[in-house]
Amino acid sequence: MNPARLIAWFDAHGRQLPWRAPGTTPWGVLISEVMLQQTPVHRVTGVWTEWLARWPTPSSLAAETPGTIVRAWGKLGYPRRALRLHAAATAIAAHHGDVVPADVDALLALPGIGAYTARAVAAFGYGHRVSVVDTNVRRVVARAVHGMAQAGPPSVSRDLSDVEAMLPAVRPARFCAALMELGAVVCTARQPRCAECPVVSECAWVQAGRPATATPARPAQRFAGTDRQVRGLLLEVLRAAVDPVPRARLDAVWLDAPQRDRCLSSLLLDGLVERTCDGRFALPGEH
Fold it and tell me: 64 an active-site residue?
């Protein structure tokens, strides 16, 4: 794959996302990467902008209660990410002089920061020559390099080495961002727009006649009626409340008592909800 051609396409056609703007700090990159996990870009942009205006440094976020952070997380989903981000901010403020580490190993040592996020921050926050692989990158590599319609089961060592072999010496982080963008907007899972692809002439899958995958498409995950929905409804009550709420307020949001109780118990276990001494419920640190 020609890195210069792909980077030139990205420079001309990449989406103008706020965390890609010049001057974005590594802290801004870290927040964006955590927010973007399993969440569409259009749901993140506004919240990310609000967070950076409100908490421009790790220490400013760390100074808040966990409940304040969960409330500000709103409806991004998977709210445990908010707690992990708060814990990481606390560690950065306490042990790294309020500066997000640049080294992958130091980033991995932060609470709640996994391998993908650590590499993404090192690359996009600091411009380091580090392979960054997400689902979109795996799909682009599967098609362009290996001639397969879809990527097979993840393999960390193989996936990273595939990208490592393509990383240019100049603007390597930009190349990783371009690979992600290509998979997100052109080389999509269901309807790839090969006519718009800047590297279509090099694509092994296209050269092979675009053979179909032997693996059936995964059905879309439902949301209605799931524990995720119930947990979200319970948290919505607490986010809207100024004071701790009685159990009856939470019982009213879902009629299936066993499922509701299971979800409330899981929120308590995850540290997203706390029970007060008088038996009411609140966001963590807000009672």
Answer: no
